[in-house]
């Protein structure tokens, strides 16, 4: 019995050792496969990542690239230039019309001032009241304004807009404008001081009120 038992025990140990060897051998065979599979998977992920980046870059470039999408044909250069010229000419006509109207209003205001203020004060011959000192050369200013208005009307009446030469008018009257307004501006501060002094005198102030009321 003892030898039989020893034989049985030996067979069990041999089976155990054999089983362990088989397990270790199987493990050694599978480990490289697993490592290889993992490595291959990593390379696959890397290749997919690079592919995604390339595709994203291409799409981004497509979005950033200028796109010309037009359902109507482009305007010919000649037609665009003609439209721009028409707009400029229309604007020029409006500016000239405004210039003429402004000069008419200014000349009219000066005319009223002379007729309703300066001439009545001169006719009254008020003592200690210097009419010429108060209004300086405003009558020459009125004459020059009327001349400028006449030249502007002459340059624009019955003349096609493209042929209306306005700059030449101002160049023609440049010298007289400088000479006349130089005198008026030179005496302006003195005239303002004189007016403040007259407004402190009730009698003289009343004369000025009468003129203003006549203007209204």
Write the layout of secondary structure elements.
Blueprint (H helix, E strand, L loop, with lengths): L1 H63 L12 H48 L6 H5 L2 H19 L10 H20 L1 H11 L3 H14 L1
Helix pairs in contact: 2-4, 2-7, 4-5
Q: How many distinct beta strands? A: 0
- Measured between the Cα atoms of the first and last residue, the distance is 152 Å
What is the averaged pLDDT score? 78
Low-pLDDT stretches are: 30-48
Q: Which terms summarize this structure?
A:
216 residues; mainly alpha; Dbl Homology Domain, Chain A; 0% strand; elongated; guanyl-nucleotide exchange factor activity; Dynamin-Rho_GEF; ARH38 factor; DBL_dom_sf
Write up what this structure looks like.
It holds the Pfam family RhoGEF. GO terms for molecular function: guanyl-nucleotide exchange factor activity. It is a single chain. With 216 residues, this protein is an all-alpha fold. It has a domain at 81-215: Dbl Homology Domain, Chain A (Up-down Bundle), CATH 1.20.900.10. Helices cover 83% and strands 0% of the residues. It is built from 7 helices and no strands. The protein has helices at 2-64, 77-124, 131-135, 138-156, 167-186, 188-198, 202-215. Helix 4 packs antiparallel against helix 5. The radius of gyration is 52 Å and the shape is elongated. The termini are far apart. The model is unreliable at 30-48 (pLDDT under 50).
């Amino acid at each position: 019995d003892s030898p039989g038992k020893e034989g049985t025990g030996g067979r069990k140990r041999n089976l155990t050792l054999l089983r362990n060897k088989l397990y270790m051998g199987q493990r050694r065979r599978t480990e490289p496969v697993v490592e290889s599979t993992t490595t291959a998977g990593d390379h696959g992920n890397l290749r997919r990542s690079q592919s995604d980046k390339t595709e994203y870059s291409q799409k981004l470039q497509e979005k950033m690239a200028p796109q010309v999408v037009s359902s109507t044909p482009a305007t010919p250069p000649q037609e665009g230039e003609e439209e721009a010229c028409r707009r400029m000419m229309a604007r020029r006509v409006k500016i000239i019309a405004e210039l003429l109207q402004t000069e008419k209003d200014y000349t009219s205001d000066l005319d009223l001032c002379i007729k309703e203020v300066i001439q009545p004060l001169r006719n009254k011959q008020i003592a200690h009241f210097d009419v010429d000192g108060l209004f300086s050369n405003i009558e020459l200013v009125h004459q020059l304004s009327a001349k400028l208005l006449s030249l502007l009307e002459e340059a624009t009446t019955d003349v096609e807009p493209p042929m209306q030469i306005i700059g030449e008018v101002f160049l023609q009257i440049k010298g007289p404008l400088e000479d006349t307004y130089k005198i008026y501006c030179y005496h302006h501060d003195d005239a303002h001081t004189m007016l403040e002094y007259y407004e402190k005198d009730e009698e003289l102030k009343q004369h000025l009120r009468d003129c203003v009321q006549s203007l209204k």
